[in-house]
Design brief:
Blueprint lengths: L1 E4 H17 L3 H13 L3 H20 L9 E9 L2 E4 L2 H15 L22 E7 L4 E8 L1 H4 L3 E5 L5 H15 L7 E9 L1 H11 L10 H11 L14 E11 L4 E8 L6 E4 L1
Parallel strand pairs: 1-3, 2-4, 7-8
Antiparallel strand pairs: 2-5, 5-10, 6-9, 7-9
Helix pairs in contact: 1-4, 2-3, 6-8
Length: 273
């Protein structure tokens, strides 16, 4: 049994909030740079160039990549042989608040979703998986709501064809249009129940973005880019940088499919304690 102090978790989470918000993921930045070199539409290429410049300045100056520093999502892989000394949830929440406050990020969280009220730093959504071992992996993903608001969920009949699923995903991106700051990264969750399909779609965004592993991912990427929405809606070749699909067993009477879209500033950072 390995013991980890709650204070160490708080510090780790606070550090991750800064890294995630200020340093664009290397796999994503690589795709953006590649798209910049291949783009033939001058306006679209200029937009990609601005994104690359913005990422460089944010990293160097430790500034937020985007003014919307998002709703912090915290993904935890907790080894079954790990013991936390203290309140794990409080440690994570404290780390989020400390990190956001120290960096002077925007207050984007309201405690009452109906009455709203004054925005605060405190608040995060924690997803925990129990795994083998004695390590604790923590990933912070600040999810901006310009793109989160474009999420889609559909409960298909189990007889639905792969073409119907493809059309649903493509139409979700088409409906988002230029509003959520393309080029996009698209996460797709297929299976489970309604809640789990949505979680799968979000987890898909944490995967490496370099190489599509499924034919479905390749087909969707090609079809979405054929929409020609382009960077910031300016047209061109790059509407989508990557499509990641995650699947899970489901009930014989259903086929849940969820789409979670990320803007070009897909942010996440991880640490293993």
């Amino acid at each position: 049994m390995r013991t980890i102090k709650a204070d160490n978790i708080t510090k780790a989470v606070a550090d991750l909030t800064l890294k995630a918000n200020c340093s664009l993921r290397s796999d994503l930045l690589g795709l953006i740079k590649s798209a910049y070199k291949k783009e033939t539409n001058k306006k679209a290429q200029a937009a990609l160039g601005a994104i690359i410049k913005n990422a460089r300045i944010a990293r160097q100056e430790k500034l937020a990549i985007c003014q919307d520093t998002g709703l912090p999502l915290v993904f935890v892989e907790a080894g079954q042989n790990v013991k936390v000394l203290g309140d794990f949830r409080k440690a994570v929440m404290k780390g989020i608040a400390l990190g956001y406050k120290a960096a002077n990020f925007r207050k984007s969280i309201v405690y009452d979703p109906i009455l709203r009220g004054k925005p605060v730093y405190e608040g995060a959504i924690i997803h925990t998986d129990i795994v083998k071992g004695e390590r604790l992996k923590i990933t912070v993903m600040p999810k901006g709501f310009g793109c989160e608001n474009k999420s889609q969920l559909k409960m298909f009949l189990p007889t639905a064809s792969i073409e119907e699923i493809k059309d649903f995903v493509i139409q979700a991106v088409k409906k988002a249009g230029p509003d959520a700051c393309p080029p996009y990264i698209v996460g797709v969750g297929i299976g489970g129940a309604a809640d789990y399909a949505s979680l799968l779609a979000k987890k898909a965004l944490l995967r490496s973005l370099y190489i599509p592993t499924l034919k479905l991912e390749k087909d969707l990427l090609k079809a979405i880019n054929a929409l020609s929405i382009g960077p910031m809606g300016l047209g061109g070749r790059t509407t989508c940088l990557a499509v990641n699909v995650e699947t899970y067993p489901t009930h014989i009477a259903g086929l849940p499919v969820a789409v979670n879209i990320s803007c070009h500033a897909l942010r996440s950072a991880s640490i293993t304690l």
